[in-house]
Amino acid sequence: MVIRNYQKRFLILFLIVMIIGVLAVVLFFTFVKSPSSKAKAAVEEFYAYEQDGNFAESWKMFHPFMKERLEKNQYIEDRVQALFNDNGVHTFSFTVDDPELIKNWQVDEDSEPIEEVYKTEVRQFFEGIFGNFEIVQSVYVTSLDGEWTVLWDYNESEDFLKMDEN
């Protein structure tokens, strides 16, 4: 009898420890995100603002380099014109690929390298008066003072240089 009580207690204790362990793992993965998943979430937030036409909020998510390059009011005006008005589009859908870590990336050839950025591909799908179309863009995000900021690539692409030669 003593052995059976001991075995029951051990089994109950073992089950309690296992349940606590499983809960700890679930909570850890629920509340502690990897930098890569935080980067992807930031890009999704940025494009959700754009999708809603809330370009002032998406502009706030830009890295300081982007804010210098694109003045807020001009960005809002140009973005609405380019994405919606010129093509008769009211909204769009989008997808964001899983990001990859890149070290010492430069926004353009003259800028200082950023130690760590995450690169992802964003696909925007539009239905407009001129038909359906898609924009695919590489988007970069980096953590700056604890906030994830968005960057676009301004380096000259090899494809563009080849087109320029023709």
UniProtKB/TrEMBL annotation:
Bilayer-spanning residue ranges: 12-32
Superkingdom of origin: Bacteria
Keywords annotated in UniProt: Membrane, Transmembrane, Transmembrane helix
Protein name: DUF4878 domain-containing protein
Originating species: Ornithinibacillus bavariensis
